Amino acid sequence: MTDRISHWIDGKPFTGSAARTGDVFDPATGEVRAKVDFAGRAEVDQAVAAAAAALPGWRATSLAGRTRVLFAFRELLSARRHELAKIVTAEHGKVESDAGGEVARAIENVEYACGAAQLLKGGFSENASTGVDVYSIAQPLGVVGVISPFNFPAMVPLWFVPNALACGNTVVLKPSEKDPSAALFIAELFAEAGLPAGALNVLHGDKEAVDGLLEHRDVKAISFVGSTPIARYVYETGTRHGKRVQALGGAKNHLVVLPDADLDLAADAAVSAGFGSAGERCMAVSVVVAVDPAGDELAAKITERMARLRVGDGRDPESEMGPLVTRAHQARVKSYVDAGVEEGATLVVDGRGLEVPGNGFWLGPTLFDHVRPEMSIYTDEIFGPVLSIARAASYDEALALINANPYGNGTAIFTGDGASARRFQNEVEVGMVGVNVPIPVPVGYYSFGGWKDSLFGDSHAYGPEGFHFYTRTKVVTSRWPDTSHAGVNLGFPGNS
Asked: Could you tell me whether strands 124-129 and 132-140 are parallel, antiparallel, or unpaired per DSSP bridges?
């Protein structure tokens, strides 16, 4: 019997019927492991109503009370981290070591949110004018929506949900319908930690659920991570309906290798960052820019390492790379490999012939060399295990290639020269930069986000900007006058 995955509304599993459902697959076998309910407008209304009803009580809960819940959640999540990692592997397909790393970074963000009492401090100016004090306070927005992608079903929800709750908001989370169970596990742990019913709700579904949140008058803000076309749609639709929106989009991340770099280190980094999680990361390296004369030697070292990669079921401890998330996505990524061959790139390693027992969604690590900027394998975000090597005659040519790209999520430079690295970090038009670090995802007390078509809105995710996004500032000017000096004064208020 196929399992049913349904919503979490008002502190408990949803028991109503669903007009529409979707399949949740085991990517390693191709088998349907569950049916997930898709929310319609009625379920969206119900979840938002539960969040709205919980808002007054949660907002009024002291900072100490809120942080106690977050600390308790952190302890539960840490104790059961391996369970969550197994859920991620079963539905997404990434190997368990990678899923474990995802959960570890999620815990880091929860720990940051536990510092809410310090992070929500306002300013205070005593006697700004004679007998007048001025101070600022940060207050919650209300009900907020979080729409998260399939590639990090545990980490990305925990980029947003802990911060939103710490600030006194209530949340409706819409995870990807491809791997929805991690979000339910998170909701159950929050309930066990003492979060009031309705403060966190989980809705499953597709565009109908997303549009329901974007258009709902009681949803005050939206946090989104996904592809650039959908991020643009979410931003434009949400803001048109009066919401605060942060929408993180796609990427085309370049790793520049200068001739003075340690080429073994660079090759290790390129393979790790290009093929980890089967390339299904918005911070994956998809283009290696080899600056002459490093190209031929670097390509050979990358090829050598790729031959040793072990591809298989993510539950097998020997596996280093798992399958793609769905058969449709597998077909899409394969089509880009076909296009790269047709467009004249040199196919060095062809992953299309990979054979793994079972009927899973497999594609082996694939490498192209001599890739040009007009090719679709360069221009498009493939989101799969396809790595391209582009050649550049100089540092300036490599920099110009990156800065001309419409995406600006992450980039890296490998070099032994500090002056070149410092110049690169200042000149490159990208939001997150690594120096001899291939995947420069910021730690939890900084903030994550790109530039250009990788971000819509002006607020990055988690860290200080996350707390700023989920609050609005109120400035209070206060005076407690001596009534013996009261009198009418029609002049414009001034400082004295």
From this structure: antiparallel
3 state SS for 225-274: ECCHHHHHHHHHHHHHCCCEEEEECCCCEEEEECCCCCHHHHHHHHHHHH
Q: Indicate whether 1 pLDDT > 60.
A: no
HSE-CB for 269 with a 13 A CA cutoff: 28
- Measuring CA to CA, which residue among 81, 2, 67, 80 is closest to residue 34? 2
Strand partners, 433: 411
Alpha-carbon distance of 174 to 256, in angstroms, equals 36
Residue 155 DSSP code: T
The partner residues of 172 in beta bridges, in order of sequence, read 145, 201
Exposure b/e, 52-76, CB count within 10 A at least 16 = b: bbbbeebbebebeebbebbebbbee
Bigger pLDDT: 397 vs 490: 397
Report the pLDDT averaged over residues 160-187.
98
The separation between CA 250 and the C-alpha centre of its own chain, rounded to angstroms, equals 10
Q: What is the mean pLDDT of residues 206-221?
A: 98
The letter for the amino acid at 331 is A
The predicted pLDDT at position 491 comes to: 76
Positions annotated as catalytic residues are 282
Rounded Cα distance between 120 and 415, Å, is: 40
| The model's pTM | 0.94
**Tell me: the pLDDT tens digits for 81-101?**
999 999 999 999 999 999 999
How far is residue 421 from each of residues 35, 395, 408, 417, measured CA to CA in Å?
A: 49, 11, 18, 6
pLDDT at site 471: 98
At 418 the pLDDT is 97
Return phi, psi of residue 353, to 5°: -95, 10
- Could you give the CA distance from residue 164 to residue 168 in angstroms, rounded to a whole number? 7
Q: Of 308, 304, 279, 274, nearest to 389 (Cα)?
A: 274
